[in-house]
Structure prediction request, 457 residues.
Amino acid sequence: MKNLKTHLGISILFLLVFFALFYSFTQPAMYRNTMGKISQNYVNVDGERKMESMPFTHITNDNYVRWDGLFYRNIAHYGYNQEESTGEYSFAFFPLYPLLWKVLHLPSSAMLFVNYLLYVASLYLLLTIFPQEETYKNRLLLSFTLPSVVIFFIPYTEALSMFTTVVGLWGWKNKRNNIFFIGFLLASLTRPSYTFLALSIVCAELYFMPTHKSWLKMIRNMVFRLLPLLLGTAIVSFVHLLYGSGDPLKFVHVQKYWENILAVPHDLRDWSHEGFSINLGVVYMIFIPLLLLVITTSLKQVRRMWDGQAGQEVDVRHYLVVLSMIYLIGATLFVILFRAGSLHCLFRFTLCTPFAYVLLIGGFGYVRQVPEQFRLIILACVGLAAIFSLAVVPYSTYWDFSDLGLFILLAALFLWLFQDHAATRVYRIARTAVIAVNLVWTCYLFNAYLCDGWIFA
Prediction:
């Protein structure tokens, strides 16, 4: 009960401060003397986007529905009727989030509170999966340091996808197979989980086979864990057929509009400078270290296969951590290999998934065993590499406020890597400062969304 009160208190405070800050930036005098001195905002006039020194815009039901949110809103209102709901494109979007929107029958802007509630509930469940009383508050606060939090404030499916997946993970950890099955089934109705998550489960089972040393167990686990994802995907296909898609794999074939084609990455770029700074940080500071870690531990696993020892049970929490690393690696590889150098939406596919939060909330126990000097050296190397790339890549023309996301991510990773100092005054001050800066950044991105600026996710 104490943890629940702490959880609700911190989560509500973050939301209230967000709204207070955002509202203050809509006031000309306040904006002029604060954000107006360090940044400009997007203005969209007849499709032409430009930056001007203007106060933030107020939230309305109309401007709250932008980008992918428009597809979800139209599906909620009209189903997959191609004449009413933005045509064939709509089949790329899965039905559970629009169904929730339709059932709740709320004004568009009220979905902000629904999404945030799902996000907060997901964090609570994850913290129960990885219980550690003395670090509960710090791990919760670290969840609000990521520069990607804004995605849980806009009408995208990430919050619902995270919640349903975490429900499944909770059932998995607690051996409640019915809850696991329902959670993963619902998760597969929110977004195409049949790709990243299904492949990650296959890779994780191969990774752990040398531990339990049973091919039969590996196959049985694969079938059981993939079944709800495959069944959910079949349900999506059936729903699309009911609306006249004419093709059971329509949600796959319409991906052609996003030009996801296997190609050699070149000319690093993005849809927006705001998204580019975060995405570059994900590549250097998360993807590369995780890839090296999984490769080295996989080699150890292979050697273990022939060590002559009996098979051992795999700890569920350890399995989830490894699964999460594989998922983030796979999602990043997809963006790198299938978008010819464009990094758009990478942080949405990684930082805004439950698997990033599994590592954030449950992964520090592994880091604690690494000497602090080594942690600092690794972070300095990948951080400097990311900053150097941001400085020299032609797409990133000059330093400005839109690059802040990379530095917030770097600061968040620093706080995560040195949680063993969480009780010190310096750490607490630094954590508060990062959350404060991230709140400003979240307000800035949210305003860019409302103004229909360049798409950052």
User: Anything to note?
Assistant: The longest strand covers residues 41-45. Residues 2-7+60-450 form one domain. Residues 273-304 form the longest helix (32 residues). The chain has one domain: 2-7+60-450.
